[in-house]
User: What shape does this take?
Amino acid sequence: MNKVDFIKIAGICYLFFSFLLAYFLRENFSVGLFLLVLIICIFTDLGGYIFGKIFKGPKLIKISPKKTYAGAIGGFVLSLVAALVYSKYTAIGTSTYLNLSMWTDMNLSKIYFLFVIIISFTSQVGDLIISYFKRLEKVKDTGNLLPGHGGLLDRLDGIIFAIPISYLLLSYLI
Assistant: This one.
């Protein structure tokens, strides 16, 4: 088995692992927490795009030349706003919902904030990792289903990295 075949098999195994943990996240915790993770990842991606286009600024890293520091900060900001709006209209951010009787409301809000930041960061790192693999293979887009957006994988790259981390964090917290 050569190196390329090994990387392809490892990638497929990781995708399977990530999708399996997505199922477990939904079943073992709740659909609400699963949706929270998706919302964080989607708005991280959206915030990065919007803030990067508006504020431009210095480039973040060479492997993904369109990524900027403004975009990275924008990803954090928009994911936090979206998560706060989501928690306001659902019971997600409450100790009753999360069954965290050991945490006070103040500690819970800090934990919620850190959870959103960690998942947003993981989503951004996942995006950069997939960009790195695309550059290695000299592929610009992973498909043409979403023209101008890098393909369908660009909508999922952060999510496939954030799901396992969120499952581990929630397993520890709850």
Remarks:
- Residues 3-173 form one domain.
- The mean pLDDT is 82.
- The chain has one domain: 3-173.
- Helices lie at 3-29, 31-55, 69-89, 95-98, 105-136, 153-173.
